[in-house]
């Protein structure tokens, strides 16, 4: 017994529906089945809107792609009941059937064959085979699908049909008159299978075919039909294709069949037969008999002469009406165990569409009981149905339109007005979109989709300037073509055989490229069904013209004062000659200064322009504005803009730009110099001739689409702002005969350079009090030399605006006359100390006021600090320093200084250190220190530590610091020191005998150290 198999059959012929372009484009899958589009197909929709703006420019806006996936529809049919078979005991009788998947997706069918109750008995063997060659019988090697009690499965693609043969073996003991029935069933869990038998056949049910054989001792005719599709020419040509049919009839019964009539009718909608001479190769084989008149025969020589010979006839169905072309034959007598066959070949129409099924079956009429007629039950027999399919041929043409040309007009017309496979445009402006119209025609015999492609500019087959972008549209250019078959390429969409579609190719030219051509790109249309089939056309452009734009100043925000001349530039700028600014405006620090402007499109195409401002231009690159400077563009109605709208040729646009001067004086200098023309040297631009340097304001307009641009120079003079600060007033205690040092910072907060001198005066100078103002002359950060002792050229270290520590020569700046001064520019500062000395005779409680004065502006301006110093024998000194803890691990990464040597990043930690020392001769009691969490910082919990002694400035403390570990940072230590954090305040209670809420005693010469950490926000 053959092994039953599960198998899947694949169709090989594709069909593509036609496409109609409307206001939106629908994308269909490449397969349209009996009930619609193939399952899983992505249906896409994209809309395109066209409109005009206020400047009469045309615009296009495309929607996103809308997508919906096709759901599966399940349909199938089974064809058909076979009730007229006769057979003999022990004979296997074959019943042909057709299973067709008429759904839109693949489906799997369960095939069963069952014995039927109510007849004489069961078949001895009941099987179902796949009739792969459609000849009505199972041939060696053909697949066993199912048998009685053992179902099988078949998987079919959409629109695929297969031939099945049920073979039923009659039991050897059967006698004439016995009947044997079977039922072939095809089912799917996804829906019903349609029984194509009228009225759903014997059982009236869907998905079943009933087969019946009656045992007879008379003649038993078995007929099979096979077909061969003859592809005469090339793969892509069906012009001479034919089908050859072979019909075989065998009498396997015990009796003779009389008056056997063979009727094989052709479908004249598919076969190109208008004369019997068109049917060729008619021949026969076998022992055919033509007898004289015989009473037992019941007939007299009919339709044959000297034995059987099938005849090409135009009355193939024997109804007496001409025009039924086919093959008809007659055999007077067909004895038992006799086999006859005949064959013929018929031509097909070469206009048949791909995928058309050619179905055919032969009708056999016989007088089995010799009663003189062929109308008794079982005397009409149909063969199996042969199925042949027209193969797909592929062809395409891509052509130019050869019409509608007009020089100087870019409208998609063919400017040479000649059909020569070259769509020609004579001229277009740089940045313009060139329109090319083409016609794509499907010359194949089936639906097809054609992939449309133009090589990238600069590649083989495309000499357009690199950067040219080709896109593909419908005939009117208002709906973009999309990838309807989802294979990654833009296409025409499904196109029926013989149909044509007009498309538009748009070539967006790059900005900045112009000149004479020719520029040519090859358009290729390729069949999606057969990628070896394609055709080409050329998109040609003769020349690209250069664009231009002109930017000029205006006297007001609603006024345009352009020159109206497309060949002139009203306010040109050339970095080689470095002309002065057109307009120079002035303003204070933080001011908002408007410049009024107008742009004129001097190009031959509509264009829009990006607006930008910078402070330098070297002929190629617009430099950025200085740090802190900002600009805002407004139209004449004060709406914020960044570009102009699209301007038609010759069109103008009024706008203004607000230059916002920084509020930081270091970024808004009263005297500014820079290399604004890119020659490598700083220059001073004095637009209003007031003696100081102004800020260059370069304003540029640059096309968004072409190489057109223009740039002009204006200037902004920032008004002077003098602002010097000195910080800070301080207090301290001192022992009689001792000294104390106060730290001060002198800073230039204005936008002008200042020449400064520093002095100090004691209020008790007459009682022996003195002072010394010290500056750093060694670069170690420690003031070491009195300001009053400096001589010309001495180095004085200070902080520049970028916080670098540098020196300058005292009183010897090359930009100023020699004198007693230091120079601080905007944002620069000088750290210095004021040291106060008390005479040893000063009684306890005496207070001196030191006035520290910085003098500038030629002595006309001063700033002061006052340091109050009180004589106290129990003197405490509190020093605060800081260090970075980048890893937040509680360990300082550097030495502690009053100003950290490193900068902290957000997320890093900072360690703050306090050291208090009793520098007096008497104990200090109830010592309490309060500190706070600084701004822009967050406290690190449980980071408070304290200990006895001076921790020094080293990263590692020189004393033991004990940590608080309770949740609220409030804990008693064994060493008697206490600390707590409440809100943003940290309080330390230090000294012997300290309590949780009260400080202790700090004896002379003793010290305590405290630290806590914060995290930079």
UniProtKB/TrEMBL annotation:
Residue stretches of biased makeup (Low complexity): 395-409
Q: Where is the composition biased (Polar residues)?
A: 298-316
Q: Where would one find the signal peptide in this protein?
A: 1-29
What keyword terms does UniProt attach to this protein? Signal
Region spans: Disordered: 283-328, 395-418, 554-575
| Protein name in the entry | Conserved repeat domain protein
Organism, by scientific name, is: uncultured Desulfobacteraceae bacterium
